[in-house]
Amino acid sequence: MAPFAAFGDLLRARDEHAPDRARSPWRTLLLALVAGGVAYGLSLGAYSGSFRHASYVALKIPLLIATSTALALPAFLAVCTAAGLRDDLPLALRSIAHGQATFALILGAFAPVTAFLVLSGASYPQCVAQAGAVFLAAALCAQITLRRHDAPLHARHPRYRDARLVFGVCHALVSIQLAWLLRPFVGDPGQPVQFLRDDPFGNAFVAAFRAVIASF
User: Which of 87, 93, 105, 102 minimizes the C-alpha distance to 40?
Assistant: First the structure.
């Protein structure tokens, strides 16, 4: 029960996960990222009916979260340095880590719901729509955690909001493109099982623009 108790503290921002703590419980944060991502990935990928595909998605979710964060961090660090916020970087990185761990845990919490829909015979579009709603809910919860942990930094440095905005925009753009590269997540039973689609290096934003144009 110890990991579950730690996860509860993480979501409530208390004890060792309180915003005013200097120590970062990296082991718990990493465990939350992996456990939540794998649990949701297995349930989401199960729609294809292939354990191999479900295993692929279980790897993709933590990979998506970790890689998108890593790619957005250099811009955040550069802005913090330019704004004279380097002294508080450990707290800023701790805040980001808690936000991403929260994101993964919320995804994992929806794993039973997703599995139920899959086993109940939901259609492919329904599963895709449900996955989008779950990712949105997880992102909103992650923002709540970020605000809790960012509060002390905002109080000391009003310019920190600008640095956080830069990270948020970069992270959102990178996450969208990376999710496009790592698709499929749900997995169409009528398609062969593969880690990436045949056109993995397409552009998510170009595809979205073309879809909007085609709708008119």
Answer: 105
How confident is the prediction along the chain (216 residues), in pLDDT tens digits per residue?
A: 466 788 888 999 888 888 888 777 889 999 999 999 999 999 999 988 888 989 999 999 999 999 999 999 999 999 988 888 888 888 899 999 999 999 999 999 999 999 999 889 888 889 989 999 999 999 999 999 999 999 888 888 888 888 889 999 999 999 999 998 888 888 777 778 888 777 767 788 787 777 778 766
Do residues 72 and 174 make contact, with C-beta atoms less than 8 angstroms apart?
yes
Q: Give the list of residues 6+ apart from residue 97 with CB closer than 8 angstroms, or none.
A: 24, 26, 29
